[in-house]
Amino acid sequence: MSKNALEALIAPLAVVLAAAALLWLVLLGASDYLVTLIAIVLLNAALAVSLTLTNGFTGLFSLGHPAFMTIGAYVAAILTFSARRKPSMLPDLPAFIAGLELPLLPAVAAAGIVGALVAIVVGFPVLRLRGHYLAVATLGLIVIVQNLALNWDGITRGGAGLAGIPRLASVWWAFGLLVLVVAVAWRIKFSSLGRAMLATRENELAAECTGIDTVKMRLTAFVIGACFAAMAGALFAHLISVVTPKSYSVLLAFNLVVMVVIGGAGSIMGAVVAAAAITGLSEMLRPAEESLGLYGFSQVVVALSLILVLFFRPQGLFGNREPDFVRRLFSGRLFK
Amino acid sequence: MTQYLFQQLVNGLALGSLYALVAIGFSMIYGIVRLINFAHGDLVMIGAFTSLAMVVGGVPWPLILLFVLVVGAMAGVTIGAVIFRPLLGAPQVTGFIATLAVSIVIQNSALMILTGQPRNFLFPAVMRERVTFGTVQASVTDLLIIGLTLVLIAGLFFVVYRTRLGVAMRATAENLTAARLMGVAVHRTILAAFAIGSALAATAGLLWGGKFGQIDPLLGFVPGLKAFVACVIGGVGSIGGAMLGGYILGLAEVLFVGLLPQEFSGYRDSFVFGLLIVILLLKPSGLFVRHVEERA
């Protein structure tokens, strides 16, 4: 291995280890509430980055993340659920799944695969068309998925949702997913594939003229984003041990879009920062909301701030760039 | 059997009328500014709650209709003026995000003011009666919905095809820049389209409350999405297409629930959006649009 290639591997690894050490230190003194909050921030950051991959890189407007999260959550939960209780609770499961009780890792992988397959089925007809069809088709997908989860009660337990999912995930699983998503997004962004995606976003016609298959780019970005969303949904379910048809709604899709826009469409670090800021902000506003009885207030604040950002800084925090500091950090040239 | 089929037909036409009223505004706005207005469905909610407030206040029914039209138009103009004008030159996606944000603001403000508790909404007792034609019966509410929708659509077609404003709207939809060069007051025309489309959606809210009897702050979401499906069926951007798409969707949905065994009826929303994906796969330009230069 050449010296440069080695350097390119060691530097990001060192960053990840440093971040892990920092997280470990924080967790030492954290209350249970704070640990859960950190896990949620990490998962939201992973979701926001995966949406940046779809919406930011290729200029799509997908609102489908909640649908893929719900799919992922149910798929993984059904796989890890106690084999003893499964036949009575979920009578319509085929026998070979009913007898299965998998560890978390294969279950999350299965969730990702199913999410990706659904994305292919939906994306294939819709992504040949222009952007806004995807927005509405993915909103429709949310309704379909919720509707199926609600009515197919032999497999999902209907509106009551699936409770008692083993609490297999932890804040470290969330951290792992975030590292994976950022690594994949980073590798894609600074490769020919990523440049092709950005070209698709900037000017479809010009991209086609240089030989880029824009439909394929959009489909790739959409499927990868959906795969990660399903994995995040699976981890959420195993973190809070319950999933219902309404766990992940349109509001979540909107909040993820806000994170992507505020971070800068196409900026990976922007999405991470915005996800942490917005998740923290809504958490801080929640006590105020509850004491005043004004449910919906924090959401109005988030939506209004988005409108202001669109008016006055439409490119978001970082545009589609990564901060120089982070780029140097990841390439191991911090001091050169 | 005749009674059952007739009942389903009337029911489907009434539901289709509601979808058509919402879809037409959606399509008008799309046709002119090439934007999906995600806040359009929320005008249904605004219309429904405005009517409820009037009913509680004891306002007579014909005045309520008038008032709902006015409130809807004003709300539409506000949305148009606040969001669409400043963002008109921005990339399309920015516009979608902005309308989605407006929709979230409207829904959550309504939640804050009205709470999520569903409210009962009732038409006067006369409306709940049924009329008999020979061997078949239909509810007065459904007939009112169908009739009023036809009147409103006739009025709309008069405005669009017989007035100066209509000419200006069609010209702007055709080519905004050319229309401006011909002396059309483009901004005013766009706002007029918002006003008309939103007034129709608000009226749909009044009728929605009357038909289903319960309203809540999030009630606009699903009708708004289904109106988009109706637009896609008829060809996005075409007013006549949106109207026909609304009727087709309403009838298809009622037939799906009415003709299949009971245990499938919970899947009606899956059916509608599954239909959307199938149509996008087979005929994305819509059933009634022969040729579109820009595949929207």
From TrEMBL, chain A:
This is Branched-chain amino acid ABC transporter permease. It comes from Taklimakanibacter albus.
UniProtKB/TrEMBL annotation, chain B:
This is Branched-chain amino acid ABC transporter permease. It comes from Taklimakanibacter albus. It comes from the Bacteria.
